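Give me the fold.
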Amino acid sequence: MSSEHTGYSEVDVPVEAIQVIDPNVVASLPSGTRIASITPHGASFWTRTARLDAELDGEPRVFFLKTTCGDRGKGMVSGEFASMSAIYAVTPDLVPHPIAWGTYASIPAVHFFICDFHNMTDGLPDIHAFTAKMAELHSKGTSSNGKYGFPIATHHGHTALDHGWADKWEEYFTTKTKALLQLEQQVQGLNKEIEALMEPFFTKVMPRLLRPLETGGRGIKPCLVHGDLWHGNATTDADTNRPIIFDAGSFYAHNEYDLGVWRASWNKIGNSYITHYHKHFPISAPEEDYDDRGALYAMFIAEMERLVKKFPDGYEGWERAQG
């Protein structure tokens, strides 16, 4: 479920991970790179991060190192590397250049992701440049097999998402959302409110709002999305003044999915960004469903209740109304 990204869970990565320069980190860098220092840098959920100052061919280079721990941590960095690599291949000026992921030789339980270091501001990205760049990513980043999903598991925060592939967006999003809700029920304990909503939500609301996107002569294409685009994962490069995004958990989706979290009241990337985004990427048909689709992608309990009440007859009722 959507929730505000606040607070940090206890970091289980040993502090030594950002105090030593591991041989496997060195081996992952361009040949001839000489690391001069490693310095703790920034704060990140569930990880320890550092800045690596180095030299290559007589020129200074700076890298960003993220370290995680355990099997879950391994999945997090492998998924992030795949996600950032996919985005970089389409819009190389939108993300730091991802270099590698791997496992420490000196501390085998520690895994790492490494990319180019960027000086970043503390503010929001420029609304015009950022929305234009996200529209470019969504327009150019299409899946090679024409399906929705992703080749490997990625993470939304601490939660692993095994994507698989689906021919239709309704099939993919229903399967993914059902798995996430079931996992939340297991982890957080049974929520009777959610349990009561699940059957009509999946059998009525999902088909009603998603099936019209790809029926009746309408169509959408699988677009590469960031996957968790709140204000903590987007800012401005202080040196180039360009928007930059990071901490991606990507997959191929309906482009409007990336905008779902922009509806959250706590997200500083909000409704004004949505308006500007659609100057570059048109709203999908049927346009009259747009606000309700956005509520569906945002996945707030209150919105689930509203949508269940609004669409008791599901897709079949809508189809009948079309004549």
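The first strand starts at residue 34 and ends at 40.
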